[in-house]
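ok posting inputs for the S-adenosylmethionine job
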Amino acid sequence: MAKNKKTNNWLNKHIKDRYVLESKKMNFSSRAAFKLLSIDKKFQILNKVKYVVDLGCAPGSWCEVLNKKPNIKNIIGIDKLPCGPIKNVEIHQIDINDYSKITEVMSKYNYKFDLVLSDIAPNITGVTTIDQENFMVVAESILEFCKVYLNYGGKMAMKFFNGYKLSELKDSLTDVFDEVSIYKPDSSRQKSREVYLVCVDYRHQ
Ligand SMILES: C[S@@+](CC[C@H](N)C(=O)[O-])C[C@H]1O[C@@H](n2cnc3c(N)ncnc32)[C@H](O)[C@@H]1O
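and the output
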């Protein structure tokens, strides 16, 4: 199929997508908001948390969902691309794999987080092995982040692509969280390999 025709097909589907329409009605920056809402409906991860960090936060719809929860007091957003400003959110432009920059910026916060969220996906190459390995690099950075900045008993939800590395990642997460579930929200396109690993009760000391 010619590239223009493919782009038009995607655009037509996107315009009619019920989550795109709904996100416009509810003033969310993107349809991704419904993925977090769906994760929360199933696992109540936004209950009883005060300090939250949103990794890969641009364009900001997850932060907008977080903003609606009265129990959430502090929201930090991190993205490698420019983002914001978003009301009530402190945003930092950093690559999650850049440990020294993360350490430098996070040192100004004298608290740990109750919830770490990540909607980061590395650029897709279409080659399964490369995509799985690239995603593992991101997942390892997120786990390192949790080791330093996630409270004991805290929660974490991160995106991953379904593939041969998923069960290996789930096993590593099970070593440090009491419960780990794999979940695909309705709003996640069926054709997409994306799933979310939802983890509760962080046990790493
Ligand atoms: C699907 S979007 C997130 C959408 C967001 N949850 C929302 O609701 O608006 C994924 C984001 O991850 C960011 N990202 C990708 N790789 C990253 C990395 N290594 N470090 C930080 N951010 C990254 C991208 O720039 C992109 O903005």
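notes: The first strand starts at residue 51 and ends at 55. Residues 94 and 101 are 7 Å apart (CA to CA).
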